[in-house]
Amino acid sequence: MIALVNRWVRRRTMVCSAPGTYGDAMTDEGPLAGVRVIELAGIGPGPFAAMMLADLGADVVRVDRATPDGFGSMSGDLLTRNRRSLAVDLKSAEGREVVLALVAGAEALLEGFRPGVTERLGLGPDDCLAVNPRLVYGRMTGWGQDGPLAHTAGHDIDYLALTGALHGIGRAGERPVPPMNLLGDFGGGGMMLALGVVAALYAVRAGAPGQVVDAAIVDGVSVLATQIHALRAAGRWQGRRGVNLLDGGAPFYDTYECADGRYLAVGALEPRFYDELVRRTGFPLAGDEAPDRSDPANWPALRTAWARLFRTRTRDEWTELLAGSDACVAPVLDWTEAPEHPHLAARGVFVDHDGITQPAPAPRFSATPTAVRRPPPRPGEHTDELLAEAGFDPDRIAALRAAGRVA
Description:
This protein is an alpha/beta fold. The chain has 15 helices and 11 strands. Helices cover 37% and strands 14% of the residues. The model is unreliable at 1-27 (pLDDT under 50).
């Protein structure tokens, strides 16, 4: 094992001396070019974090299961784009050897199992840091690595419920509404893990030792709600949902149905933007006799008037009327319409790659541009290639395949 690791480290040192030569996945694109990340395959927020790092140029190697068991991403899952895959039996000694050989030449590892699982596999933080003391070991869970709920199952909706975030989403007097899994899995989970890993990589390069990043969705969602906690502390946010400035309670920050059954989003929070909206739409409750919009007692009457007005034209007619203004109104587009919107098209927010329209990598960088370089890999698509890079000779690779330790 030690000899194998040494061969891998020597190979890595050699290839990293020439930018853009680290396998065909290594390019000059993206600010993380030259960083290798090992991803132990999972679902949801973990792959999203790995996608973010891969989109930013990191060479992310996804370790899939050698024997499909129904666990993992769907075929062609865009969350697995921009990386290569090898399939390994993690429960075998040989599989563990393969992963540790990869870890020895990597900067970071990502895993999204329940607490204790990688330790039982012999791939926990202590095991990995023993072969690579400068490793950043990123862990993605819902509840965190410790606490009373750490070892129990959960999903996005559960984490939102416990943090208070779900309580605040929905109409007044109605039940809370799950906001898909964007807020927990991806905003409070995967994005926080990606940020944590990048921050730890920066620290290691500045001389800090390798370390563990414990990213929990309950932590991340709570951080996302910091402004709401601040407004509550200032007495500017009620505990009831659907009655506040940013939760659909205000008639000037809400959605409205138009004559064709489609919707407009209105976000005229500031008085000057609201005045622009009133002026351009010909809103009837205007002038000196207009109700004070800052008084929530007037919101029901204003909402009724706005709803009546917006039903007089189609969504696209309102969009054309308000185009180029500061009225802060946008059409509510569906999944098919969004990529075709002129603004999103001009910025290249969506790209076509391998015949699939998908969100482009974000954010943008002036000197180190990002790109969708690879489609989602098939599990094990690059097994031989990656094992060879890690120092395994052809006979050893063939033996591992014959034994079912890799696929």
